[in-house]
Design a protein that fits this description.
The complex is a heterodimer of chains A (276) and B (299).
Chain A (H helix, E strand, L loop, with lengths): L3 H4 L15 H20 L6 H17 L7 H32 L7 H16 L2 H12 L3 H26 L2 H9 L4 H35 L7 H10 L3 H34 L2
Helix pairs in contact in A: 3-11, 4-7, 4-9, 4-10, 4-11, 5-7, 6-7, 7-9, 8-9, 9-11, 10-11
Chain B lengths: L16 H14 L19 H18 L8 H17 L8 H32 L8 H16 L2 H12 L3 H26 L3 H8 L4 H35 L7 H10 L3 H29 L1
Helix pairs in contact in B: 4-7, 4-9, 4-10, 5-7, 6-7, 7-9, 8-9, 9-10, 9-11, 10-11
The chains are: A mainly alpha (276), B mainly alpha (299).
Chain lengths: 276, 299
């Protein structure tokens, strides 16, 4: 403050405001930097290996994509279909289970203890990776695609339930009050007060979860429930790189295509409902 | 059912729009009177009400198709046979084997190390790439399109598949896990942050351009402070995802708790698995808590 006074001799000079001091920010930055440094220093990686990495990556990319063995394509597509089926079934089951639960878990509609229990359940499920859920389920259903679908369904309930109740709580309360004032029951308030405004949210959550499940279903193959991930791990273990290349191309193309279709459907749904 | 509607009174049916409006006006005018009040003219139902039902039918049909024996199938017999066996194992999930804890400490630490290292590297890489992928900070259509396309491709492959391939390339250990996570993180951060930049207020950027700044100067002094909160937010989010993801990367040999998960599942030691799950839960919840506090205070 005192240092500013002498500089003010020239009235046209612009004085920048003092930088605010942010103790918390400084502390957080220090802690974050320290954590990062400790992690870098202690992790069991020989950083010298990084030097040869670019060369290796180029070498393997060349092995994978210079002469892909396209004769494996039909089998790859069949396995991809299997994965997508898992994703689809998992999403539909997830929707069926999470749909009523997300209303029960919303403030103002379900009883408080139920709400708390459901929210706890949702966050519990979300914290566990789907592959571990699959490992648990496979003790009953075996190493079948059904296991994959069920694991995806369980995981979908965690996210869809959460997004659902947040959306139900976020709708404008006017219509709900109108239904209540007209003597509507809770179910009627949900149907005519909440659903018309929340429906597009729900549809896009479902589509988005389907996109996530398509990716996740490929991963579930790693533990042997079938699908493209299963095929990819086996061929990686045989080190048949030309087939691995084909499989990666299939995964990328199919995932991007499904994302594009899903985005188109979503756009159609959201625009269609706001245009009315 | 929606399809069984009671026939609506007189005016509403097939009356053209103008007639409907007149009827509605008449109703309002006569509303205060008591006698001879015409029935309320309900507006005609919008066309295309069959569409949601058609969509539902398609969804049900596809679902039934996936349940058919040619696809995923639903073998109730096998489940019934496995049920006793499986139920026993699942019950063991509820009695964690605490004596297993010492063996989980080191893999747990490795999981956290991988998560942190990958977050830092991923964020560092993603910061400039986000600027390349957003319109205000990279007006060149071709480089922007190329960056976005490359990232869409990167995002289409899940991190565990990257890890599976990378383990075969560079060998078992934390390194392939970190690389897989970095790829995964760059995809997410760049997508989210570049969308924030795209949606940000153009005013300051235009002011910078009007003052004669180069694109690099604009990005450095105007766009960077603007995108920083979103960037920090996404980095924290990615850290949460990484803790969850890195705990299973070991399933393909990429280090961390996943190595133990793989060992434990082979012997169906679900009591030990449940301890590992508990540890993952605690780690994820703690990281979520810390990052939500940081987020509230800083962003």
């Amino acid at each position: 403050m005192t240092t500013l006074a002498p500089t003010r001799t020239d009235p046209t000079e612009v004085i920048a405001p003092r930088r605010p001091v942010r103790v918390l920010r400084a502390v957080a930055l220090t802690v974050a930097t320290a954590t990062a440094l400790v992690a870098f220093w202690s992790i069991d990686i020989q950083w010298s290996r990084l030097a040869s990495l670019p060369g290796q990556v180029v070498h393997y990319l060349d092995l994978m994509f210079s002469a892909p063995s396209w004769d494996k394509l039909p089998e790859a597509l069949r396995q991809t279909l299997r994965s997508v089926e898992m994703a689809w079934l998992g999403t539909v089951l997830g929707i069926v289970v999470s749909f009523p639960l997300s209303f029960l878990a919303a403030r103002g509609y379900g009883p408080a203890p139920v709400r708390g229990a459901l929210r706890g359940l949702f966050s519990l499920i979300r914290a566990v990776p789907e592959i571990i859920i699959a490992i648990i389920i496979l003790s009953v259903t075996g190493l079948t695609p059904l296991t994959g679908a069920l694991a995806l369904a369980v995981n979908s309930v965690g996210t869809l339930g959460k997004w659902g109740y947040e959306s139900v709580e976020g709708v404008d309360h006017g219509p709900v009050e109108a239904v209540r004032a007209a003597g509507g029951s809770t179910v009627e308030a949900l149907r005519w007060g909440v659903w018309p405004s929340a429906a597009t949210d729900f549809f896009s959550f479902w589509l988005y979860r389907f996109e996530i499940n398509v990716r996740a279903s490929a991963v579930l193959g790693l533990i042997g429930v079938g699908g493209i991930g299963d095929m990819l791990t086996s061929y990686t273990q045989y080190r048949e790189w030309s087939t691995v290349g084909v499989l990666l191309i299939v995964v990328v193309v199919v995932t991007m295509a499904i994302d594009a279709v899903s985005a188109a459907v979503r756009r159609r749904l959201t625009d269609g409902s706001t245009g009315r | 059912m929606k399809t069984t509607q009671t026939p609506r009174p007189g005016a509403a049916g097939g009356v053209p729009a103008a007639g409907g409006a007149q009827a509605a006006g008449g109703t309002r005018a006569a509303g205060d009177g008591t006698a001879g009040r015409p029935p309320l003219a309900v507006p005609p139902r919008p066309a295309g009400r069959w569409k949601p039902w058609a969509a539902l039918a398609v969804v049900l049909l596809l679902t039934a198709a996936t349940l058919s024996p040619w696809a995923i199938g639903f073998d109730a017999d096998a489940i019934a046979r496995n049920w006793r066996n499986g139920a026993d194992r699942i019950v063991r999930l509820f009695s964690p084997d605490w004596s297993f804890f010492p063996r989980t400490v080191e893999p747990m630490l490795e999981t956290l190390q991988m998560a942190v290292v990958a977050t830092v590297v991923g964020a560092a890489v993603a910061l400039p790439v986000s600027m390349w992928a957003a319109r205000p900070t990279n007006p060149d259509r071709w480089t922007r399109g190329a960056v976005r396309l490359a990232l869409n491709v990167v995002r289409a492959v899940p991190e565990l598949l990257y890890a599976a391939v990378l383990v075969a390339m560079v060998g078992v250990g934390a390194l392939p896990g970190v690389i897989a996570l970095v790829l995964f993180n760059v995809g997410i951060i760049v997508k989210m942050v570049s969308e924030t930049i795209d949606g940000s207020d153009r005013g300051p950027l235009e002011a910078g351009r009007a003052a004669g700044a180069t694109q690099t100067q604009i990005n450095r002094t105007i766009a960077l402070p603007d995108m920083l909160p979103s960037f920090v937010n996404q980095t924290l989010y990615v850290l949460e995802l990484n803790v969850r993801a890195s705990s299973v990367l070991g399933l393909v040999g990429a280090g961390g708790l996943g190595l133990l998960v793989d060992a434990v599942r082979t012997y169906y030691r679900y009591d030990q698995l449940s301890l590992i799950i508990l540890e993952i839960l605690v780690a994820v919840l703690v990281i979520d808590l810390v990052s939500s506090i940081v987020r509230r205070r800083l962003v």
